[in-house]
Design goal:
Length: 122
C-alpha cells in the first residue's frame, strides 16, 4: 500500500507522517499541511505523534539536512510506535525530499535498509 500523493483529509484513525525541522516550525512542504490540518503544533513537538500527525526531523539549523542515519533511527522509532498502536494507520509522505533535499531514492533506501520488518499499519 502506498500513501496518496496529496492528502487533504484523514479518516479518524489515520496519521499524517511528515518531515519537519528540529524547532517544529512547520513552515514548508508537508509540515504546513500537518500544522494547518492535522494537529502538528508549531514550536512544540518536532518528533512523534501530535494530533493526527507524526513528525520526523529532517532538517536542523538554517534548514540544513540532518543525516540519513538520523532519519533512519527515527523511522525505527516510528515502526516501534506503530507496533504499539495497531489501531492507527500511518500515511508516510515523501519525507526529507523537499527542504532537506534528499532524493526519493535515498529515502527509499532507508526503508529498504530497515529490512523486511514493517508494521502492517504503515
Amino acid at each position: 500500500m502506498y500513501t496518496p500523493e496529496k492528502i487533504i483529509s484523514l479518516n479518524e484513525k489515520e496519521v499524517f507522517v511528515f518531515g519537519t525541522n528540529q524547532y517544529a516550525s512547520h513552515a514548508g512542504g508537508a509540515a504546513v499541511i500537518a500544522a494547518e490540518k492535522f494537529g502538528a503544533l508549531n514550536g512544540i513537538s518536532p518528533h512523534g505523534l501530535c494530533g493526527q500527525s507524526y513528525g520526523i526531523i529532517t532538517t536542523s539549523f538554517n534548514d540544513m539536512p540532518v543525516s540519513l542515519d538520523f532519519i533512519k533511527q527515527q523511522l525505527l522509532v516510528l515502526y516501534e510506535f506503530a507496533t504499539l498502536r495497531p489501531d492507527l494507520v500511518f500515511l508516510v509522505t515523501k519525507i526529507a525530499t523537499g527542504i532537506a533535499g534528499f532524493s526519493i531514492t535515498e529515502v527509499a533506501e532507508l526503508f529498504h535498509d530497515i529490512g523486511n520488518w514493517r508494521p502492517s499499519n504503515i
